[in-house]
Q: What sequence folds into this?
C-alpha cells in the first residue's frame, strides 16, 4: 500500500484542479447556502472542506487531512475538495451545516465524519480504513 501513496496524493491534487466546484457566493440566503452545501457533500463519495487546496493546503490540519486520505488510498475519482478560504458563505455555512466549529471537515457518502483530530484518531485505530473500505472509495491494490 505504501507504494501507491505518492500516486494517490498526486492524483488527488490533479482531480482537484480539474474539479469545477460551483460557487456558494451565488446563494443570497442562509437556506440556499445550506442547500448548496447539502449538494456539495454528495458530489463525490469523499468530500473534504479545507483551508486551501490538496496541492496547496493553507493550514497544518488541512495538510494532515489530505495526507491521511492519501495514506488511506482514497480513489481520486471519488474525491472532491472545497477551499473554504475562497468563499465566506461556505466557510461559515459548513460550520453551521455540520454543527462543528472547525475546518477541515470530512464527509463520506454525504455523512459528516469529523475534523482532523477525529481523522487522525480513526486513522490510528484502523476505523477510518474500515469505513473507507466499506464505502468502496479506496484504490484497489
A:
Amino acid at each position: 500500500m505504501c507504494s501507491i501513496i505518492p500516486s494517490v496524493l498526486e492524483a488527488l491534487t490533479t482531480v482537484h484542479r480539474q474539479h469545477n466546484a460551483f460557487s456558494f457566493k451565488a446563494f443570497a440566503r442562509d437556506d440556499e447556502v445550506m442547500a448548496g452545501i447539502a449538494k456539495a457533500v454528495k458530489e463525490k463519495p469523499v468530500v473534504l472542506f479545507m483551508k486551501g487546496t490538496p496541492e496547496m493546503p493553507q493550514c497544518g490540519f488541512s495538510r494532515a487531512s489530505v495526507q491521511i486520505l492519501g495514506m488511506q488510498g482514497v480513489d481520486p475519482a471519488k474525491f472532491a475538495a472545497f477551499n473554504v478560504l475562497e468563499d465566506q458563505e461556505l466557510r461559515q455555512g459548513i460550520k453551521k451545516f455540520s454543527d462543528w466549529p472547525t475546518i477541515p471537515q470530512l464527509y463520506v457518502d454525504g455523512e459528516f465524519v469529523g475534523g482532523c483530530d477525529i481523522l487522525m484518531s480513526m486513522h490510528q485505530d484502523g476505523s477510518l480504513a474500515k469505513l473507507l473500505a466499506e464505502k468502496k472509495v479506496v484504490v484497489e491494490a
